[in-house]
Model the fold of this input.
Amino acid sequence: MNAVVRKQMSIHPDVMDLLNNQIAMEMKASASYLAMASWCDQRELLNSKDFFYKQAEEEREHAMKIFTFINDNGGAAVSPNVTNVNNDFESLRAVYETGLEQEIAVTESIFKIFKTARKQDDYITEVFLQWFITEQSEEEDTFRSILDVFDLMEGMPLKMIDERFPKE
Done:
């Protein structure tokens, strides 16, 4: 990137690069949740389908929030290429376990950006990321609570388990 443009940035260049990687991660998560919604829809697991459609939209919103933050602070946001999205799952529980793993990976990535922003005295990004840290805590808790339902209802038909999940 042009040195003059980088000097006008409010965010540190290393942080901007990590934020662009985060955009890609959020968009891949969105695509992954769409695949999960489709898998659930094909099996008439309607609450889970609605949950994953909502998750897909939320991840896209997160990506857009970061995208505009980068551009609003003098950086250059990059539109990601999303590939290698899994569309096949062995069970409903596996779908939710995959979702939790994905959320944990996103949390770890946000923490990495936060630490880098702090190290680089990039206070603007550090404050911006506070919202994402809180959001990720809530997301992980949601998935863990849903997985607890599987443990409580072990052996029950999927449709009955799905009906225990909140309607979105």
Remarks:
- The chain has one domain: 12-76+89-164.
